[in-house]
Amino acid sequence: MSQKVTVAYGDGIGPEIMEASLKILQAAGADLILDSIEIGEKVYKQGHTSGIREEDWEKLVNNKIFFKAPITTPQGGGYKSLNVTIRKTLGLYANVRPVKSLYPFVKTKHPKMDAIIVRENEEDLYAGIEHRQTQEVYQCLKLISRPGTEKIIRFAFEYTKNAGRKKITCMTKDNIMKLTDGHFHKTFDKIAQEYPEIEVDHWIIDIGAAKLADTPEEFDVIVLPNLYGDILSDIAAQITGSVGLAGSANIGTQCAMFEAIHGSAPTIAGQNIANPSGLLMGGVQMLNYMGKNKVAEKVENAWLATIEDGIHTADICDEQTTQKKVSTSEFAEEVIRRLGQAPKKFTEVKYPEESKKIQIHLSEHPAVEKTLDGVDIFLAFEPREPNLLGEKLVAATQAARLSLEMITNRGVKVYPKGNPLTFCTDHWRCRFTKNGAEVIQGSDLVDLQRRIVEAGLEIIKTENLYSFGDEKGYSLGQGQ
Ligand code: NAD
Q1: Most confidently predicted of 75-79, 115-119, 363-367
Q2: What is the residue with the minimal CA distance to atom 26 of ligand 1?
């Protein structure tokens, strides 16, 4: 059945690899009706800071499936990443990146690697909420939500089950970020109990990334928050042999976008030498998503047969295995010639007749009692003298209903009884808490802030401190 797909040819090597990929997909019987849009550099430079024209959103929403070549994001301020905007606007919460070695035909130190990275795609530090608050300090907010986390973790388990895979590894930094990454890890452990047939483990991201770079064959499916997933998936693709080989699917509840993991490679653009494999594998993921599994299988097997016959683009050429070095368009012709063939040395790919669509149902969470315990007031204060600031604050807030508990600088407690060796910036977090069992309200916080401002101090932001039932919704100061 023909199906409409929005297509963008992108920048740099984009048009060459898109043309090659579409030629192969259509020759295999994909039966795609192409609805093109222009995105990227030209559109940015015409003054659309998001890299896409307003009217093209309608096509993306109506067609629901988007096949996208890489684009160039102009350097310098003012331009927003189009990829991040599309993922978030269309709710494409799951980024799936299979990373598999093609040994011995593509050189790699990791011949047995065959992993799938499932990356949360909408939140974390990619919320893009940044501020410069003082002369010396910049801030980026890391947002981890309960529904966002549950969606990606349930997706990872369902994906693992449908793909017949056996194990999921979660990676976070919850030894440091106990609330945000801690929530991600806890949700993983909780949902894992619903899938006793799937083996699970958790790694702290730093050693987990090292382990992946060293023995990637020990991993099966890996689920991670956005930033770690972004970094890890590039490392993983690179160590399979080339960033030009991996595809990427961005899946939402209504829409989906398919692409290569690499960028627009401007230095090799226009030379007909780029490897179209990454985008083609994005296309295979797209066909599976559309339920055209048998066409997907045909394309992937012909592609594997081409690679094992030693037909290679420049990026994967190697004296021992390359029989013929080909251009982008010649590579496409060679894959088309092999459509209908199975690889002889690689394992033949077999997809089930039908794909199971992943439907996520979020759990119910009864609201827990939320109590206001106090407030963190952030101040800009030039002298690097915590005791001076502490004394000023105590004097200014004596008659308030909350009292100063501590001051931290970049998270480390510096008052009371700080260590003189601690380096301080001009950015101070001053924690005020209620006295004993007293009940405090928003108006008490306003009164506190008024006293601080009247003492001539500069407030740059505040964060309320809440407890949820018995659990504190805020971290302690380091050294508190
Ligand atoms: P890149 O992925 O474009 O290139 C990295 C290296 O890999 C280069 O040496 C390049 O020549 C090579 N390479 C990449 N794809 C290849 C292919 N298919 N065949 C052969 N070699 C290939 O990364 P970059 O140079 O950091 O970024 C270039 C531009 O791409 C930037 O403007 C960046 O913002 C953009 N970018 C876009 C996307 C996207 O649209 N999804 C993703 C990443 C980067």
Answers
A1: 115-119
A2: 263
